[in-house]
Structures are given as C-alpha cells and as structure tokens.
C-alpha cells in the first residue's frame, strides 16, 4: 500500500461515497473501484460495502484507514525531518485556519511569506476552530489559527482581538432587549465536540444572564454572521456578532458588549502550534513571520 493508496482510503472514509472520493482524487469512479478491488485482493478482505445509502467501510476497511492516516502523518514527519537536517526553509507548510481568517486575512499573509521564502509550498485547511484543534492534536498540520479561547496547552500567540457588538438598524433600548426580535447565530455542530458549547457562546450567555432574568426572543436562527447582518439591515431584529463583520459602510447602530464591571467582551484570534515543531526551519520561520506582523 503506497502513499496514493493511503490518501485514497482517507478520502473514502471522509466522503463515504465512491463518486465524491473519486472527484477529490481527480480520477474516475471505475478507476477508484478497480484500485479498491486490488487492495481487497492483496489483503484478502473486503474494504467497503455498497448499499442504497452509499458506501460504508467494513471493520477491516476502518482499520486500514486508521493505518493509512498514521502512515501519512509519519511520512510527512519524515519529509519534514530530512529538510530540517539541512536547515532549509523549503517544503510544504501545513496550516489549519478558522474559516473567516482563511477568507480575509490569510491570503495576503501567505503572499508576503512566499516572497520571503519562495521555496515554500502551502497546504491549507480552512475549517471551524474545534476542527483545527483536532488536526493539530493529530499532528496533521504544523500551525493552526483559531478564533476563540479554546483550551490548548502548548505554544500560542495572540494575533488580534475584536470587540463584540449588538447591532441593529435603529437605536436600541437595551433594557427592553429581551422583548425585541433576536436574530441568533447558530453555530455548526462539530462531531468531535457535539456536547460542548463554544467559548464564544458561553461568553454571550454569561453576559446575558448577568443583565437579564428572561431569555431573548429568538425569531431567526441563521448559520452565518453575514446573514445575521443582512437580516438586521432589513430591520428584522437585532443580533450579536464579532466586530470584524461590521463596517461603517453597513450603516448599522452598534453597542459594545460590556460586562457590568466595565470590561469589554472581546473575541481573540490565536496562532497555536507545538513548541517542538520549531525545530523545523519552515515552521520556525513562519511563526516568527506571523509574530512580526501582529505582535
């Protein structure tokens, strides 16, 4: 089983679909099916079972996927180590970044870093912060950028913070906020953390309970801050969003979220990594570059 086979098995596990896995591999479905059949012949076991609901892995298939993931991680570590022996800033830098950061902040940063280190290639995964943490725990990425104060017990660096705003089209009476229509941002559920609330949600709830004895009147549940903002622009209610999503051009009324103690509530963006990976020249140079841009 070679590196391509390991990647194939990983995609197959993630997609649970031959068609989607083949698309990610840029091959035809028959070609993918043929390679799976060859692996099944080599190992003498069935790897997948097809049904009307899609494709699922057999117990033997799940074991091979687990082995494939470990093999890919070890292969990447071996490649990193060989380059580090020469102390060369080259190779592939594997990054995991929160979706918003990946959309608005990361592209110019990578362009600048590429100009400084032209031999570096990038492998970027844009996802939710808990997913980035999981990738770092599994050593599938070198550096992560997350939004929010999630627990991480190795190296971290605060890149920036942002105020949290209550936004509305017109002036608000904060004392009457529980009676006003609230456009609520509903966070996606993460499989690995389905029973946990995000630090951001917990902070908002703590602020609310500090000030009000009754719950908000939620009239809309939406899955993006941009949608929250557009609903507010139409005068359909108020919302609570990170300040980075609001600009003066939006023409909205904003009120900073402040604790009763007078302390403003902010949302932090962190760069997180393992201290041990700084032994790799490519990681050390990128971390120092990011610190020079923010700290």
UniProtKB/TrEMBL annotation:
The keyword Translocase does not apply. SUPFAM superfamilies: Periplasmic binding protein-like II, Winged helix' DNA-binding domain. This is LysR family transcriptional regulator. It comes from the Bacteria. It comes from Paenibacillus silvestris. InterPro entries: LysR_HTH_N, LysR_subst-bd, WH-like_DNA-bd_sf, WH_DNA-bd_sf. Transmembrane segments: none annotated. Keywords: DNA-binding, Transcription, Transcription regulation. Residues 1-58 form the HTH lysR-type domain. Belongs to the LysR transcriptional regulatory family. GO terms for molecular function: DNA-binding transcription factor activity; transcription cis-regulatory region binding. It holds the Pfam family HTH_1.
